[in-house]
Design a protein that fits this description.
This protein is an alpha/beta fold. The protein folds into 2 domains: 5-74, Orthogonal Bundle (Arc Repressor Mutant, subunit A); 82-258, Rossmann fold (3-Layer(aba) Sandwich), CATH 3.40.50.1360. The chain is 38% helix and 22% strand. The chain has 11 helices and 15 strands. It has helices spanning 5-8, 11-25, 30-37, 41-53, 68-74, 82-93, 108-115, 130-137, 162-169, 193-205, 243-251, and strands spanning 27-29, 57-60, 63-66, 101-104, 124-127, 144-147, 151-153, 158-160, 173-178, 182-183, 187-190, 206-212, 224-228, 234-237, 255-258. Helix 6 (82-93) packs across helix 7 (108-115). The radius of gyration is 20 Å and the shape is elongated. The chain starts with a helix and ends in a 22-residue tail after the last strand.
């Protein structure tokens, strides 16, 4: 995330940049902020004191992190699984070209994909995720961001509903990065009607779909089918799928990209082994 010296002299823009950068990186030292913003240590300390007094950041030894209130309200993606999700996001973002037109789904994993986009990315991002929009418009230079509005789903700060679906239908993207709750030999699934309608709309406007999901998706179940495996181009996950599922992915010509190239996931669906070698 680079900032020009001219921007560095604007206090409001500088403080906004610091807040967005902390959402993305968790902690930044005063030395690093001084280097990136091309201002003095004293200026950075004044900025951090201002942001701390307004409740946005917490000053710690040598730098700053987001305040607890800011984490709770503007970055919902701090969870025990955050490290694995960050790894998935980085693996998925490696598939993005410098000028691609992409769509990023809402939720923690979508946020990690956006956070991992290359510094030189200057394409277009279509998304229904408010945190993704906030993150990307804070980059310098920022990519083109197209937000598809509608009713706000407050548990993950995402736009959903008929207006969102209609907005998605009016655009076209090269690659969709889709988060799912479950994946099996038949297809991919999610839990709620509101999310399902938006995800299906994204599927309909994408030239190719990259499903980004942790290995829990192989063991979990969800009632609403989004599409068959044939609608998926690539699966990015953190463990190799169970044998039966991997065979179905191969037959559907889905490329499987395993972040870290781990072995088969230890979890099973409903307590049964999915790797039944007798199944054709």
């Amino acid at each position: 995330m680079e900032l020009s010296p001219q921007r560095g002299r604007n206090a409001a823009k500088r403080r906004e940049w610091i807040t967005v950068a902390l959402r993305a990186e968790g902690f930044l030292s005063i030395a690093e902020l001084t280097h990136r913003l091309d201002v003095s240590h004293m200026t950075i300390r004044r900025d951090l004191q201002y942001l701390e007094e307004s409740g946005h950041v917490r000053m710690v030894h040598g730098g700053a992190s987001l305040s607890v209130a800011a984490l709770n309200h503007s970055d919902r993606w701090v969870t025990p699984a955050a490290t694995d999700e960050a790894q998935l996001g980085k693996a998925a973002a490696n598939l993005v070209g410098e000028t691609d037109i992409i769509a990023i789904d809402a939720g923690r994993i979508g946020y990690e994909v956006a956070k991992a986009l290359p510094e030189d990315f200057r394409g277009t991002v279509v998304t229904n995720s408010i945190p993704v929009i906030q993150l990307l418009i804070g980059r310098f230079p920022a990519p083109r961001v197209v937000g598809v509005g509608g009713e706000v789903m407050t548990d993950n700060y995402a736009f959903v509903g008929a207006n969102t679906v209609a907005s998605i239908a009016r655009v076209r993207v090269e690659t969709l990065f889709l988060a799912v709750d479950a994946l099996d030999e038949r297809g991919v699934y999610t839990h709620t009607d509101a999310e399902a309608s938006v995800k299906r709309a994204f599927l309909d406007i994408a030239d190719r779909t990259v499903v980004v999901a942790g290995h829990d998706c192989f063991a979990d179940s969800a009632p609403l089918m989004l599409g068959a495996l044939s609608r998926v181009s690539t699966l990015v996950t953190d463990w190799r799928p169970p044998e039966r599922t991997e065979r179905a992915l191969h037959e559907a010509k889905v490329d499987v990209l395993v972040a870290g190239e781990r072995e088969t996931a230890p979890s099973t669906r409903n307590g049964t082994d999915n790797s039944d070698p007798a199944t054709p």
